[in-house]
UniProtKB/TrEMBL annotation:
Classification via PANTHER family: ATP SYNTHASE SUBUNIT (PTHR12386)
GO biological process terms, semicolon-separated: proton motive force-driven ATP synthesis
Keywords: ATP synthesis, CF(0), Hydrogen ion transport, Ion transport, Membrane, Mitochondrion, Transport
GO CC term, one of those recorded: mitochondrial membrane
One Pfam family from the record: ATP-synt_G
Main subcellular location: mitochondrion
Compartmental location: Mitochondrion membrane
Protein name per its UniProtKB record: Mitochondrial ATP synthase subunit G protein
Protein family: Belongs to the ATPase g subunit family.
Molecular-function annotations in GO: proton transmembrane transporter activity
Length: 125
């Protein structure tokens, strides 16, 4: 139990240190970031303009769906063709496919862990 207390104290100390760093350097970082990206800022930044931009983004994304749908089916067709000709598959291509599958599985596992509240067993302590 003492080990848990010392870990908690160390974590609290690191959190306080990070908070002090953010408080000291946060304003300067924000100012620099906004200066570098001022060409992206709509002036004046009103609620109405934000709502308008939000709607534009939403409908632009919707308008891009047919192109994405078509690209998906092209990719799917090329995958089917690759599967048909799998006897001609090179070791490098199989390795890339295996790594892609492992990456998908890892992201799935990570999503499960996040969904359980960052616990490995599913039980909250």
């Amino acid at each position: 139990m003492a080990a848990l207390g010392s870990k908690l104290a160390a974590l609290q100390s690191k959190a306080c240190e990070a908070t002090r760093f953010a408080a000291k350097h946060g304003c300067a970082y924000h100012k620099t970031l906004m200066e570098k990206n001022k060409h992206h800022v709509v002036d004046p930044p009103t609620i109405q303009k934000c709502q308008e931009l939000s709607k534009q983004l939403f409908y632009t994304r919707l308008a891009s769906l047919p192109g994405r749908y078509e690209a998906f089916w092209k990719e799917f067709d090329s995958t089917k063709l690759l599967w048909k000709n799998r006897s001609n598959l090179k070791v490098e291509d199989a390795g890339v496919a295996a790594l892609f599958g492992i990456e998908l599985y890892a992201w799935s596992c990570l999503g499960e862990i996040v969904g359980r509240g960052f616990t490995l067993t599913g039980y909250h302590v």
